[in-house]
User: Fold this.
Amino acid sequence: MWSLIVAIVIGFIAGLIARAIHPGNDKAGFIMTTLLGIAGSLLATYGGRMLGLYDEGSAAGFIASVIGAIIILFIYNMVTKRSTV
Assistant:
């Protein structure tokens, strides 16, 4: 349970950093950026566990969380741009 809380807190910060790193004009607000960052952190945590990079009960590192948040933000931008056309 503690690793989930850590992943959420790290994801919050990772979402903000991913938003600053990802190029382009994003229309997502602060709450959406936070949720995408948390999703990216959880993606990195559980994806890393499935690949055997992390032990059960441990959270992904900060850099992996930022990378996961960038991936989620990229997918989000692709979906929202396609639906607005």
About this structure: The radius of gyration is 13 Å. Helices lie at 2-21, 30-51, 62-84. The mean pLDDT is 78. The first helix runs from residue 2 to 21.
